[in-house]
Amino acid sequence: MPTDLRPPPPRAPATTRAASPPRRGLPLPVWNVLAVVLGLAVWAGLARAGVSGLPGPQEVAVRAGELAMDGTLLDDGLASLRRVLIGFALGTALAVPVGFLMGWYRTARGLIEPYVQFFRTIPPLAVIPLAILLMGIGETPKIFVIFLAAFLSCVVSTFQGVVSVDKTTINAARVLGAGDAVVFRRIIVPASTPFILVGMRVGLGAAWATLVAAELIAAQEGLGYRMQQAQIYYDLPSIFVGLITIGVLGLIMDRLLLAAEKRLTGWQERR
Amino acid sequence: MTEKISFRSTSRTFDVGGKPFHALQSVDLDIADREFVTVVGPSGCGKSTLMNIAAGLIEPTGGEVLVDSRPVHGPSPERGVIFQQYALFPWLTVRENVEFGLRIAKVGRTERRRRAQHFIDLVGLTDFADVLPRMLSGGMKQRCAIARAYAVDPQVLLMDEPFGALDALTRVQMQDQLLATWGTEQRTVMFITHDVDEAVYLANRVVVMAARPGRVQEVIDVDLPYPRTEAVRLSPEFTRIRNRVWRAVYHQPVQEGLSR
Ligand SMILES: Nc1ncnc2c1ncn2[C@@H]1O[C@H](COP(=O)(O)OP(=O)(O)OP(=O)(O)O)[C@@H](O)[C@H]1O
Ligand SMILES: [Mg+2]
Questions:
Q1: pLDDT of residue B254
Q2: Is B64 helix (H, G, I), strand (E, B) or coil?
Q3: Do A176 and B132 touch (CB under 8 A)?
Q4: Residues of chain B found within 8 Å of residue A186, distances taken between Cβ atoms
Q5: CATH number for domain A56-264, candidates 1.10.4080.10, 1.10.3720.10, 3.40.50.300, 3.30.465.10
Q6: Percent of chain A scored above 90 by pLDDT?
Q7: pLDDT at position A17, please?
Q8: Architecture of the B1-72+157-260 domain
Q9: Residues A25-50, buried b or exposed e (16+ Cβ, 10 A)?
Q10: In the prediction, which pLDDT does B246 show?
């Protein structure tokens, strides 16, 4: 019996930090915070210098406080978040099974792929006029375009995930006695999870991007609507509050998905 | 001895750019029960194709392959396969990989645990039972793949250049370990390699294949005693057989001591 009990190779860092020089000085988050502070300072400087009506950070913070106090910020944020989450959830919930279907059954692929490829070339926003005419000006058309954006990004990467599952891995399961159902459940699903999660992240980005535009057209509340109103009244601080809120919410959701991805796909060999 | 695996005029053509390509042409080969057969031949001569047909992963386009006198259609846990690329399930730990086949066979939890542990110990991965494959070296991955194949207790082991990617030392250790388990458990083994020394060291018989079309060129008996040891490896008889295989592979005489 060989006694190869060498210690395991060191765990590869999640990022490609190996390429960067050895860590010296302050930890990364400190630099991140520093960058934010610096950015705010530059912003404040530009505002003070009087760049065409640009509001300074304090002004925006004060407006954010006002909007938060009277509840509009929360209401708008929740309204937007609700649309994104519903559209995104519906989109991925449909995209994953459809992507699996396309990857697993040739017939399904042949039937569905032309539509997916075609609609992918149309920016979801271009569907808004049609959606509004067909679905009225309620929540439905907005959620629909967000759904479409999330669905199209996620379905393609799920499909990619299924078709790129290593043939040898499938064969390895088959020779251990696995039938189609087991291969699907225990090989295809886990092996394509990384692709699905990447698709979800892209889909979330697309959903978020679509949201604001959807809200610019016929909405009664929401971050996009509030920014649209602010534009009419030349209310720059409110626009900034809207932008920053969208950015922060998007970042939080992306980080959550990233954390899920790390947890679910930590088994991958990093190259 | 009874035949375990019989290739009967087994052929396989692939469609390459619209033209048929004879990867295997009419292979006749019998492998006896509990025999250790190695297959050598130049790259592209159809070794993997032959093995995949025996595994049931590729259908022959002509002839057939019988295992226990029954034609093979599709894979079965009776025939364990060890792939050159390890083909572990990267999202499962070593233990879960080894338990995979047992789970499918609906072996109960305690029995499954016990059997998996036995084979994990056997291949020396005891301390790594609960880590993911990405933490393993190449040799350890291959040992995990071997434990996974052994765990379902196949009567036939089909191995496609399993030690090809290993360093020389690990490779020798793996060879000795394979022979040790084969000696006690007496499975039928079909082992593909491109290493002539390895082919002779392990086998009862060496099957030499030739390319274009893929076919069996010669079958050479290895009359060396088991257990095979370093002494066997250094014996003149070993050298003689190895040179014979070498000549058969390259269709040309080589001078003594000048191989490799
Ligand atoms: N799916 C396929 N489609 C077309 N040609 C194939 C296919 N599989 C194998 N071949 C061809 O059949 C021949 C034999 O392939 P095979 O993989 O069996 O060779 P091999 O002896 O295992 O080679 P190596 O030692 O390099 O692994 C090769 O020429 C290869 O190009
Ligand atoms: Mg091969």
A1: 43
A2: strand
A3: no
A4: 89, 100
A5: 1.10.3720.10
A6: 46
A7: 44
A8: 3-Layer(aba) Sandwich (3.40)
A9: eeeeeeeeeeeeeeeeeebeeebeee
A10: 93
